[in-house]
Amino acid sequence: xxxxxxxxxxxxxxxxxxxxxxxxxxxxxxxxxxxxxxxxxxxxxxxxxxxxxxxxxxxxxxxxxxxxxxxxxxxxxxxxxxxxxxxxxxxxxxxxxxxxxxxxxxxx
Length: 108
Known about the structure:
The chain has 2 helices and 5 strands; from the N terminus they run H-E-H-E-E-E-E. By secondary structure, the protein is an alpha+beta fold. A 5-stranded antiparallel sheet has the order 1-5-4-3-2, sandwiched between helices. The two termini are 17 Å apart. The relative contact order is 0.23.
């Protein structure tokens, strides 16, 4: 299940980079990066978000999806091998999906 959610998250990550995000402001900049413990703490305390899924990117960066079931906010971050964590995208209306992913040609 988590693999499915993570795969869906990564599939939409490219489109999400262009989206305006209320607390991540879209594309990572120096202002949207920091040490991982501080970033995770801020996501938890300010937005109530906890890690929902994670995976390894081609550049050996760790991609994580944080979300809050209560508020519906979500954030995608990537931690580089150097230890720097950057916000990639964020938004609202997070929903955990159970079951198999819909494949091409199937009705939603």
